[in-house]
Design goal:
The chain is of the alpha/beta class and about 220 residues long. The chain has 2 domains: about 70 residues, no CATH class; about 140 residues, Glutaredoxin, CATH 3.40.30.10. It has 5 helices and 9 strands. The strands form 3 sheets. A 5-stranded mixed sheet has the order 7-6-5-8-9. Strands 1-2 form a two-stranded antiparallel sheet. Strands 3-4 form a two-stranded antiparallel sheet. A hairpin with an 8-residue loop joins strand 1 and strand 2. It starts with a strand and ends with a helix.
Length: about 220
């Protein structure tokens, strides 16, 4: 007589007589399954340990990226930039053909592109900033990296841009400033020195931003 085992492999059966040849075959059959079970537990254990280690690391990285994107204070450039002379470059706007021609003004140098949604997001805020700082000796200077000059011109018209801009199709100026993310903005004081760098779209009317600009405007 042979009894079937419920909790085992479908092909396993337990012989009723422990002294029979069938019993020895049964024991061998059980033994043949043990290594596979052990291997399974080793693999599963390794995967579980890996997930326990990588899980918190992934969460930390994700949290940092979220903070960096949503909080402007985490998007500032290197503090070591402050005090460096701003690199001069050629351009063509009314009354100036080089950045150095704007010496004596506080320049908010903004790198942007018409294909950049975050640039569009802050355009009206930059218009308002130009209106606020223009009478005080400040200027918002936009440097576009558009390849398509027609798209560049259409952007200016569609968004009623009032601050001076220049389309640098060579992208040389942005490259020289180390700009790879758009928009990116540099604060330049009246002496032509870098004061601050911000990456990403900003609320240019925020108290924190305006205070930084007002400090520069008040310096002779």
């Amino acid at each position: 007589m042979i009894l079937a085992i419920v909790n085992g492999p479908a092909s396993q059966v337990k012989p009723a007589n422990p002294h029979s040849q069938e019993w020895l075959c049964y024991l061998n059959q059980i033994a043949s399954h043990e290594p596979r079970r052990s291997g399974y537990y080793i693999v599963v254990g390794a995967k579980t340990l890996k997930h326990k280690i990588l899980g918190p690391i992934g969460l930390c990285i994700a949290a940092f990226l979220i903070i960096a994107f949503f909080f402007p204070s985490y998007r500032q450039g290197e503090a070591s930039l402050a005090g460096r002379k701003a690199k001069d470059f050629q351009m063509q706007i009314p009354g100036a053909s080089h950045l150095s021609d704007l010496r004596g003004k506080v320049v908010i140098l903004n790198f942007w592109a018409s294909w950049c949604p975050p640039c569009l997001e802050e355009t009206q805020s930059l218009n308002q900033l130009q209106q606020a700082i223009g009478p005080k000796g400040g200027v918002v200077l936009g440097i576009s990296v558009d390849d398509d000059n027609e798209a560049y011109k259409k952007f200016l018209v569609d968004n009623h841009v009032i601050f001076p801009t220049y389309d640098d199709t060579t992208k040389k100026t942005a490259t020289d400033y180390g700009t790879s993310m758009f928009p990116e903005t540099y604060f330049i004081d009246r002496e032509g020195r870098l004061a601050r760098k911000v990456v990403g779209p900003q609320d240019w009317q925020s108290p924190e931003i305006m205070q930084s600009i007002e400090v520069l405007l008040k310096r002779n």
